[in-house]
Amino acid sequence: xxxxxxxxxxxxxxxxxxxxxxTTSERISGFIGKGFLVLxxxxxxxxxxxxxxxxxxxxxxxxxxDENGKTNLDLKSVNGELLIVxxxxxCADCSHGNRPSFIKAAKPDKAIPxxxxxxxxxxxxxxxxxxxEFGADMRVDxxxxxxxxxxxxxxxxxxxxxxxGNKIMEHLSKETAADVLKTCxxxxxxxxxxxxxxxxxxxxxxxxDAKHVCLLLVDKANRKCSMLAxxxxxxxxxxPINWHEEDQFRLVESWNEIVSDKTLIINNVAELQSxxxxxxxxxxxxxxxxxxxxxxxxxxxxxELIGYIWATNFEVxxxxxxxxxxxxxxxxxSSEISRFRLLNRLHMLSTVDLLTGxxxxxxxxxxxxxxxxDKDPTIHPLGVIFADLxxxxxxxxxxxxxxxxILLKNxxxxxxxxxxxxxxxxxxxxxxxxxxxxxxxxxVLDKEAELRKAISANGKISFxxxxxxxxxxxxxxxxxxxxxxxxxxxxxKFYMEHKxxxxxxx
Length: 506
Fold this sequence. Notes:
By secondary structure, this protein is α+β, with helices and mostly antiparallel strands. The chain is built from 14 helices and 17 strands. It has helices spanning 48-60, 108-124, 161-170, 174-184, 193-208, 246-259, 269-278, 280-288, 319-351, 361-372, 392-399, 401-418, 441-458, 476-497, and strands at 2-18, 24-32, 35-41, 64-65, 71-73, 81-86, 129-131, 138-153, 212-219, 224-232, 264-266, 294-301, 304-312, 382-389, 423-426, 431-437, 463-470. The strands form four sheets. Strands 1, 2, 3, 6, 7 and 8 form a six-stranded mixed sheet that branches. It has a five-stranded antiparallel sheet with strand order 10-9-13-12-11, with helices on both faces.
C-alpha cells in the first residue's frame, strides 16, 4: 500500500461526469481546509492489518509546525481534516519499458472494502474525512502548504515480530516451550475461539502455578477494554471489575507509563510500593485485588498494542519461568487474536451496513433463504415490518447527500430504539426491514403502533410502514411480499397527503 500525503491549506476533489450526448459536467465530491490530502494506492497483497498499520502512521505523522516553527504537531493537534482519494496508479510498475504496468494494483472487489475501511477508521478516530469516488474520473485541486509531501509505503514499516519470537525462544527451557506450544495449539482451527482461548488461559495459569491469570484486550480507537479470558485458582474469591467502564480504560492506558513494551515484574510489597509513587490509582487497584506479586506482559501486533496478559500471586522462585511462559504465550496469542479480529471485521463488512449499523441486504437475503429452507420441524410464528424513509430524495436533492446520510443514520437510530432485540436490516437505499421471530400478530401490531408513536414524537423522521404476520418462518417470502405491498400502500397514502414532498420521479 502506498499513501502520498500532502500537507494542505485546502484541497478538493471533483467528479467528472459525461452525459449520453457527450457533454461533461463537474461536481465537487469532497472539500477540506487545513489538513492532509491523501492519495491511496492499494495492491493485491494488501490486507486490513496493513491498512491498520498505515492508518496509525498517517494519523500519527507530526508534520505541522508548533509555536516555535518546529514540525512537531500531528493532525489532531491542529484540528486537521482529511481528504482521501483512491489512486491505483500509485501501484504502477515502471521497471520494464516506458509504459507502466498496473498488475500489482488490487482489483476493485478487494480494493474497495480496504479503501472504505481506511476512510471509516479515520472517521471513527474523530477526523472529518472527505473522499472522492472509487474508480471515477476525478480532478484534484489543492494548496500544498510548504510544499510538504510524504510518500508512505507499507513495505517500509517493519514490525519486527519474527525477531521478537526468535529472541524469546533463545532463553526458554525446553519444558516451558513445550508446555506453552502444547496449549496454544488448541487455538489452531478451533470451532469456538472463545472456548479455546479460555482453555489456553486455564492451562497457562496451571503452568505458572499462579492464583490468577488474565487476558485483557485494549481497543484504543473506541477507548474500551474487554476481558477476553481469565482463570482463578479454586480458593480465590473474585472481586468483579467492569473493564468496559471509561475509568478502567484510563487506568489501563496509564500502565504504559510504567510498562511500555517490556514485561513488568513485581516480586514483593516493596516493589509494589514503587508503583504507588508512579501511579497511585493503579496501586490502589492492585491492593484492592489483594495482589502481592505480578508478572504483566503487553500483547502487540504490527507495532500496535492490543492487550495485556498477567499472572498474580505465585511463588517468587518461579518468577523467571512465569515471565518466559507469558512472553512466549503473547507471541502466539497476538497473531491469533489479530486473526480472530480480522475475521470478525470481514464478517461485519459483509453483513453490516456501515452507514446505519443495521444488517445489510446481503445479510437479509441470507437470513430469508435460511428461514425459507429450514428443515427444523419446529413451528415459529413470524412478523415482518417494512419501514421506508419518506423524503430522502428531497433531502439529497436540496441539501446534499451528506444531509441525506445524516437522515438515514437518525432513522436507523429511531428503529433501533423501538425494535430492541429484533433483527433490523437495511434492504435498500431508504428501505428498512425488521424481523420479529416468534412474535404473535398482536405483538407485531403493537410494535408498528410504537413505531408510529416514535415518529410522531420525533417530528423530523417519517416512514411509510407495512406489516405482515405468518404462522411459520418457512413462509418468510410470503410475509416479505405482504409487508412490502402494505408499505407501498402506506407510502402512496403519505404522498397523496403531502404532494409537495413527492420528488420520487424528480
